[in-house]
Structures are given as structure tokens and as C-alpha cells.
What does this fold into?
Amino acid sequence: MPGFLLHVGATVMCAHAGQAQPATPNPRVKVGGQPIVTLPTLYTIAGCTMPPPTAGNGPCVTAQFVTSATRIMAGGQPVLLQDSQSICTPTGTPLTIAATQVRVKGT
It folds into this structure.
């Protein structure tokens, strides 16, 4: 099923309400005037509320997406979509994509 392309301005959060931002978006391809994000891009997370050990295994520090578009590439890398799956380190929880651009879809 097609999903909207993920871009720098998207609202992406860890499961504990931390704000996630792509470390190195693709600067050559833009949607809505903002760079898109490809699969190898690491996300950094700030403001995660998961407590550190011994009360928890947090906070979330980084995240990596593990699924992406299968048919759309940018710079030789698959682009991320609104339904792409990710995993946070060290908690193992996913990122949530709360809002993204709604003009460009991909599969």
C-alpha cells in the first residue's frame, strides 16, 4: 500500500514522547521544500521520558529504520515512508510518525 514520503519536517517521536530528527537527510530530493529521508539515515532522539536503569532501559538515544519503499530510490538508497518500521536504541521500541507531508506517495 502506498505511503507518504518521510521528510525532515515530519513529526517523528519515540514511544516515550522523545522528538526524533534525521541526522543526515538526502539534500538533493525535496518535498514541500524540505529534504526527504532515506533508509540508511540514523535518527537522533531528544527528550525521551523512559527512565534509565534500574527503573527502565532508556532513554531512547537513536533509532534506525528497518523497512522502506521498495520501488523509490534517492541517491541509490530506498526512501522512507510514513508506514516504514524502525527500532530505537537501547529500548527496542519503534518510532511513531505522527505527521508528514501529504502530497507525495510511494511504494
Summary: The domain at 3-106 is CATH 2.60.200.60 (Tumour Suppressor Smad4). The CA atoms of residues 67 and 84 lie 5 Å apart. The mean pLDDT is 95.
